[in-house]
Design brief:
mainly beta; 4 domains; Pectate Lyase C-like; 1 helix; Immunoglobulin-like; 33% strand; 7-stranded antiparallel sheet
Length: 667
Amino acid sequence: MRRFLRLRGLVTGFALIGLFTAVLAAATSGPAHATTTGAPVFNNLKTGTGGPCPSGQLQPCQVMLADSTDHATFSTPITATAKDPGSLTDPVTVSCPGLPAMPMKLVTPATHQYLCTATDLDDNLSATATVSLTALDQPTVVHTPIYPQPVTADATDTATVSYPPVTASETPTGESDAITPGCVPVGPGPTSATSGNAFVSSGTFPVGVTTLYCTASDNFDGLVLPVPPYQFLKVTVADQPVTLTVPTTQLAQATSSSGATVSYSPVAAEGSETEAVGACSADKPAASSADGFVSGGNFPVGGTTLTCTATDNVDGTSTAPPPSQSFTVIVTKTPCAALAGCNLHGLDLSNAILAGADLSSGTDLSNANLDRADLSGASLAFANLSFANLSRANLNQADLTGANLTGANLNHADLTDANLTGANLTGANLTNAKLDGVTWNNTTCPDGTNSSASTPQTCAPAPATTTIGNTPPWNGSLSSNFGVSGAPNNFTPTMGQTVTVPATDTVLHSFTFYADLPANLLFRGEVYAWNPNTVDPANPYASGSATGSALYESGQMHTSSYGSGLAPQPITFNIRGGLPLTAGAQYVLFFTTSRDYAANAAANITDTGFVGYTATDTYSGGDLVYVDDGGDPGQWITKVWTHPAGLGCPPCFNQDDLAFSATFSSH
């Protein structure tokens, strides 16, 4: 025996490319795995991409998975090792008769076996082993589409639903395979019995969520690994909404001191299905009715407002009940064919639902209690409302032409856009009433004067106001570079002033900036809550950011003239009805071109806008701020705003406050 280091012999290396995949499996023959001194031992091969060696196959073996061309590549050499008693490695040769040359094309998944012999050249000892090469087809993958959007059922409580095709392939981009047996429902939930066409796309689906599971088979070459995992597809069909309809105002004459018997019939339906109406609750104490205000029951003199609800009684699948609906039953002391011209003097009509009602032609509502009544859009022309209690009543867009409101209590009433032409308000209480958009024309005011004494005409009391701002001491200084974001000019698109709300007058009615803007530049005014604590390490002049959603947004505006920085004019944003804010809190009032970025960019405005500012701190409750939002309003709350005072090269960018004013009142 020679006592020098002997190098391990590499017997055979190969790279086989098969049409699918290959596996190496070994069953040793004779002394292949024996420990006899010097006998060669086959080296175990690592398994390939196809997973472990098939059950029952010994090493060496290799399992390879095909690529997208249905070829598998084998490159691990078949080797053996022999050692003498001194643990020195002997040279070994390996021969494998019949091993095909590269590439090897495998047309079916199979294990190809070769009997290999390893010979120790020093000791003339040999061992045999069966080498197994197994090729596997690529697995089939099922591809399900995004779940289809929910649809609403028809009168049969089913819906036709289409969804994109469910596909299968051996790889995401490889052979197309068959969806077999297709997509079938899986419980809990609807089963195949609830669909006449097995839930195919454009088939019938029941109300609810149908979960389909889809699998596939190898349709292309029939060579497939185990069945691929199921992929799920959910189809949602919503039940038809239940609609609830209640009667209009019910009018009846009392037949006794306890009132009158009144029948009513609210109707609930889901398409053609009749649904159940729950009990209608009354706004009056139960003791006011001997039988709980049921239809056909007793109602007391005055108004009783009933609020009804509905449920899905037929199939119980509606996802949400319809909104409750209300109507009012009015029992009068004297006969009335209709509300118009009816004697309702002194009746308790609190909470009455009379929106859009015709109460004109001298309807007598004098001394009536209409607290919180809904009279929006009602016709009250020439009605008698003297000394009526209209506290917190909704008279939005009501027609009160020629109405007698002498001594009426309108405290906190909403008279927005109401018509008070020729109305008599002598002695009426308008404290805290909403009077925006009221038509005052020859109206007798609470103090006995006529609205025509004011220009424009009004009877609205002048509320106590607080005005904040700095005009004066603003001296007319203007800063350029306001306009449309981005190329070619990269103007600043959004500029504003942070303010602190006064302690008592907390309702913002208007704010004004001073600017000289190109006449075709579109802009809007905005109000947002302000977070002064937002910081940006990259911006030493970061001053905070807007937060939440818009509290006020004006309509689209533009100026009518442009003086190239020589003719600043006040730009005022009036907030109809006022904007209640929180005392002591900070907000940002600003104007911006970014809401109309597309239109402004298309107009190709190259002139700069000039904005009034003060170089020193002229308002202690806030600061001038701006944000380069790139024409994207979404950045107002995601990006910090800059306060330019002292920015860069004082005093050339010393801009501390915008020239502005803002008006607040207590209501």
